[in-house]
User: Fold this.
Amino acid sequence: MIITRFAPSPTGVLHLGGARTALFNFLFARQNKGKFILRIEDTDPARSKKEYEDDITNGLKWLGLEWDEFYRQSDRKEIYKKYLKKLIEEDKAYVSKETRGQRESVIRFRNPGRKIVFEDLIRGEIEFDTAELGDFVIAKDEESPLYHLAVVVDDFEMKISHIIRGEDGISNTPRQILIQEAIKAPRPIYAHIPLILGPDRSKLSKRHGAVSVSEYRQEGYLPEAIINFIAFIGWNPGDEREILNLNELIKDFSLEKVQRAGAIFNIQRLNWMSKEYIKKKDIDELAELCEPYIKKLKTQNSKLKINDVIKLQQERINKLSEVGEGIDYFFEEPEYKKELLIWRDSTEEKIAAHLEHLSKILCDIQESDFNKEKIKEAIWKYAEEQGRGDVLWSFRVALTGLEKSPNPFIIAEILGKEETLRRLKIAKLKIQK
Ligand code: GLU
Assistant:
């Protein structure tokens, strides 16, 4: 059975890189009808925090990466102790008196100093001479195992078949293989995935912008978009497709296609993918997701049909937090200079007459018929006769105070008849002043 694990240390929040490691483990397990384990590696009590563990588990759940089994290394001390004792009994490890450092003694692994060769699914054959590692420390004492021992014991006990982790794990592998051999554990298959790099090709970090999953969540990226995006950092399905959801990824993911070279993080790509997912969302669902970002707006104009505003924005935004951007005119009366109402070399008199006429036409539409089709139908003929620029430009500016906006018919519909007429009147007064 294929069993994978994501084994984060809770010494920081969940980053995109960690999420990608989790995703690859998840995909590989699901694809093979195997098991995906989440293991919190909190053997370092000084640096491990519960709040980080919570951030990691919440982030994974939000992304939809549900695990089949959960372990926490601090709950498993007895197990490591048993292995430590045995290693010492067999003289494969020993208590070493220390003269330097803070401790009087530590437990060291008796390193046979062999050459280790292992096959990595992504990197190919990797060779290490372990002699230079010396007798490395595997525990402070029997109660306090260190990282390498705990990892190896757990991977063995949990029957991990594939270790998929970041490339920075490569240098740990030889030590871990030595410990595996000492406890007679079979060697799992390794796949070290490339690091995520910033646009300047250095390791992705805070310097390059947001790196934690929760920051992206707060900014209003959809989890589907994050999943799609991180899947494509250093991997692609080998064809034209770029939008793949979790189920499609489970079907098409392959470790063999993961590239070796570092993979560049490209925020424009995330924005593009995110936009695609937002466009596809059902409007009611989207409205619910936008809730935290429009609370303030809602109270400013309680009559406004907020779902219509969201629908209008749905085509244009990259992330949910942008839902209220560029549409202040829905919530407050637009401010603009009267010159803005005048299209090219038209005149104040002409524009005033158009605004007057538009008011009349729109006034004749019944309240219940006041929708974009009817509004357009009513205005269109007049606009064609009088010059579309003249009429539609001033209509737009009267409603929004802007030179650019979505089409004014839909804006009028959303504003409603009363407010539309009111704004036309204000515009006319402005120009006649
Ligand atoms: N706990 C280690 C870390 O967070 C990873 C262990 C592993 O994947 O083998 O860096």
Residues 343 and 390 are 5 Å apart (CA to CA). The chain has a mean pLDDT of 95. Residues 7-9, 41, 151, 165, 169 surround glutamic acid (CB under 6 Å).
